[in-house]
Amino acid sequence: MLPDRAAIPTDLELAMPHKPQIEHALQRCTSQELRRLLTIACETAFAAGQLIKDRFHQPHDIRMKGTINLVTETDLASEALILETLAQKTPAVPIMAEESTQSMGVRSQPLYWVVDPLDGTTNFAHGVPHFAVSIALLENGRPKVGAIYHPMLDELYCASIGGGAWLNDRRATVTQTNELINGLVATGFPYDIDQTLPKVIRQLERVLPVVRDIRRAGAAALDLAYVACGRLDGFYEINLQPWDTAAGWLLVEEAGGQLSNFNGGPYSPFVPQILATNGRLHAALLQRLQ
Ligand code: IPD
Ligand code: CA
Ligand code: CA
Q1: Which secondary structure element, helix H or strand E, spans residue 141, and what is its range?
Q2: How distant is the alpha carbon of residue 101 from its chain centre?
């Protein structure tokens, strides 16, 4: 059952003033409800981003979730802030969040938030200033609004369904690159690389020689945001989680790009393959990944 409309507040009073950088995106929302939801997603991502930025130069308390999979006190603090804010603004909407492992259960709900409180934790922990907060709202398995905030650059990427993709106050659009050899493509390496190395190497061997270059910047949400705003022509990765991709998925679609799994079928954040491109390069990249 969808939450009662009344559960989504109409008289939104956010703790912080609207960032002028989201005004254009808000104006293009196709309904008042989307406008409210996008405001919540953006303002919450922005607040969490400030928290992360404030802690960037401090020493970190690092714990291991796996051999190479880190979590810091800042991931947890960011997630706590986001959960509290969303629970206050949309009390009836459940939340799937990376560091709240039991929250995967909300997947069966028709409407829920999907949160990565700090995408690019390895960068953050090593002092590399490339990471983001990612927040999306999924309805019946599809994103309605999405926000990705890069606090070190004060770049807020956001999208609402039918309302376009935005980078701060500028419309985001994918590139027009037609030839793979002119394309800059990003990828990432999964935390279970000890199991997946042969597959990852095979994909690199197939893609690297036919594109201009490959980037592995370390934050999948930003990789998708960069495809949406035309800094990259494509992105692929295996074994990502819904919180890595949900907001970026909507951004790429609203920016005119294309997403699929490696069979060319519709993208689902619950299938561990993502190919996102400017559309023009999709078939050619897909053929390299199949
Ligand atoms: C990771 C980053 C990375 C990707 C990993 C993700 P995290 O997210 O997005 O770029 O390659 O697979 O898990 O752990 O920093 O939130
Ligand atoms: Ca992530
Ligand atoms: Ca994370």
Answers
A1: none
A2: 18
Centre of ligand 2 from the C-alpha of residue 75, in Å = 10
| Amino acid (one-letter) located at 229 | C
In CATH, what number is assigned to the domain containing residue 119? Answer: 3.30.540.10
Query: With a 6 A CB cut-off, is 123 part of the ligand 1 pocket?
Result: no
Kindly state whether residues 45 and 80 are assigned to the same domain: yes
The dihedral of CA 266, 271, 273, 276: what is its sign? positive
Residue among 119, 135, 224 to mutate when testing ligand 1 (max atoms within 8 A of CB) = 119
Judgement on whether residues 225 and 269 belong to the same structural domain of the protein: yes
Question: Tens digit of pLDDT for each residue in 247-276?
Answer: 999 999 999 999 999 999 999 999 999 999
Report the SS3 class of residue 62. Answer: strand
* Contact (CB, 8 A) for 63 and 71: yes
Same domain, 197 and 259: yes
The parts of the chain modelled with pLDDT lower than 70 are 1-19
Nearest ligand to the CA of 219 is 1
Q: Are residues 198 and 138 in the same domain?
A: no
For residue 273, give the nearest of 248, 234, 241, 246 by alpha carbon: 241
